[in-house]
Amino acid sequence: MPHSLSKNLKSYFREIDSPLFVTVMAISLLGALNLWGVAGVNSLLFKKQIIFITVGLIIMVVFSFFNYRYLKNYSLPVLGFYFISVFLLFLTFYSQSVRGVNSWIIFGNFTFEPVELAKLMLVILMAKYLSQRHIHINDFRQIILAGIYFSLPFTIIFLQPDLGSSIIFFTIWLGMLIAAGINRRHLFFIISVVILVGSLAWFFVLHPYQKTRVISFLDPYNDPRGSGYNIIQSKIAIGSGYIYGNGLGQGSQSNLGFLPEPHNDFALAAFTEQFGLIGVGTVMVLVIILISRILQIGSRVASNFGKLFSIGLSIFIGSHVFISAGVNIGLLPVTGLSFPFLSYGGSNLISLMAGLGTLQSIKRYG
């Protein structure tokens, strides 16, 4: 039996992308280590995160056995999951508001953020839709229909209001359109519409606190105890880490409560405070390896669905990393986005694991 198990494991790791699997394991464990230092090894947050990581890895393995061609060849399951994700997004309006945002579905102690599932479903839907119509991508009717699929969940996300996830959602959609070969004239039109809608939203849709966040990031010291507090404390935490960091659990900004959301929005700052430039450099190298492996898998498969899915998934992860890191170092306004694998929480982690499992299926089945 042990010999048979060992043989099966060797066979499995030959079929999947092993460097991708190991990288996901490594960065997930660094996230758990960060939470250990922030909340303590006996804390409920740490124990729950270990469960999230374990469940996520199991989901990644299970999805790698699922033949992705069902998503590529059949529209019904893709549309079904898409509309389920939209329905779950709609339910957030009837759930409890957290910090003025209706982004979660809450049942007792169970909390689920459906926008993370919606991001993954957008990647899958656009990969399927654009892979079937890439020859006709210059037909503006195809752009309009893709825009309808995008705008339905996007509108709900924007009205929650979840500005950070709205940006991620738009970035995934536009990035996949560009990858599919949208022409410059249509791209210019889309960007012009976005600028117009964004300008109107600033005056008529955005809440005052969201406008304050944008303004405060430009000069956080104008209101150091109010709107600029989060960014200032994040910079202090990052700066105090120096080269080697203060050590596991030794971050004063995090442990003394000065750094807000050290387990989530500002997880990167908390990690840097503990492990310094070497630690955060290790995280960024792992992220680069992860995204490069995703794109390599996509470049080697024959199907357009696989290529577009890998691009969409890399945009999903990369945009989260870019915006979250930008917020932590004070280059972007506070958006409330998690850092993939490093921040606490199951919704983003499990959605990414499901996406990575699907990618492994693309690697296995070609």
TrEMBL record:
Entry protein name: Rod shape-determining protein RodA
Membrane topology according to the record: Multi-pass membrane protein
Gene Ontology biological process terms from the UniProt entry: cell division; regulation of cell shape
Keywords (A to Z) from UniProt: Cell shape, Membrane, Transmembrane, Transmembrane helix
TM region(s), chain numbering: 20-38, 50-68, 75-94, 114-131, 143-159, 165-182, 187-205, 275-296, 308-329, 341-359
Organism: Candidatus Yanofskybacteria bacterium RIFCSPHIGHO2_02_FULL_41_11
GO molecular function: lipid-linked peptidoglycan transporter activity
GO CC terms, sorted: cell division site; plasma membrane
Taxonomy, superkingdom: Bacteria
Chief location: membrane
InterPro entries: FtsW/RodA
UniProt keyword Membrane present: yes
Cellular localization per UniProt: Membrane
